[in-house]
Design goal:
Layout: E1 6-8, E2 19-20, E3 38-40, E4 47-49, E5 54-60, E6 66-67, E7 78-82, E8 88-92, E9 94-99, E10 106-107, E11 112-116, E12 120-121, E13 127-135, E14 138-141, E15 145-147
Bound molecules: zinc ion.
Zinc ion is lined by residues 28, 37, 39, 128.
Organism: marine sediment metagenome
GO molecular function, one term: metalloendopeptidase activity
InterPro entries: Cell_wall_metabolism_enzyme, Dup_hybrid_motif, M23ase_b-sheet_dom
């Protein structure tokens, strides 16, 4: 299907990788748009880098609203990158004013995208990372793998 499912971890090498899979009503697998998403438990202000090269097609960085109310979903700061193979990666829960790329920017694997923060639906500090394709104007989460670089 997609030739290159491999991604590097979206953090600099010195960051300890801790992946969490939320359960219950917030479980990723309950929603087609986030089925294969992972949450990296990292401190606020952690550098986020591109897990794969592509073009920045969406950003938001003006929110400092967050909490467990699901209505806060539109308050998530994020970066979305479109890859060569047509897939997208989204990097969610960035800090207010902490997105370091612009829409239209070309990024290489490893380029700085921004810094984690509190925004959107969350409690513990984390980066939500997801790969998806677009079908009928909706994002559908697709499987991916990480490789150490
Ligand atoms: Zn998540």
């Amino acid at each position: 299907m997609y030739r290159d499912m491999k991604y590097r971890f979206p953090f600099p090498k010195n960051i300890k990788i801790n992946i969490a899979y939320p359960t219950g009503e917030y479980a990723h697998e309950n929603f087609p748009e986030s089925k294969y998403a992972v949450d990296f438990l990292v401190e606020i202000g952690t550098k986020v880098i591109a897990a794969k090269m592509g073009v920045v097609v969406g950003i938001k960085s003006d929110s400092d609203e967050w909490g467990l109310d699901k209505n806060l979903v539109d308050n998530t700061n994020f970066v979305v990158i479109n890859h060569k193979d047509g897939t997208y990666a989204e990097y969610l829960h960035l800090g207010k004013g902490k997105v370091e790329v612009q829409k239209g920017d070309k990024v290489e694997t490893g380029d700085l995208l921004g810094y984690t923060g509190y925004s959107g639906v969350m409690d513990l500090p984390h980066l939500h990372f997801n790969v998806f394709k677009i079908k009928d104007k909706k994002g559908i989460s697709i499987p991916f793998k990480f490789e150490e670089i």
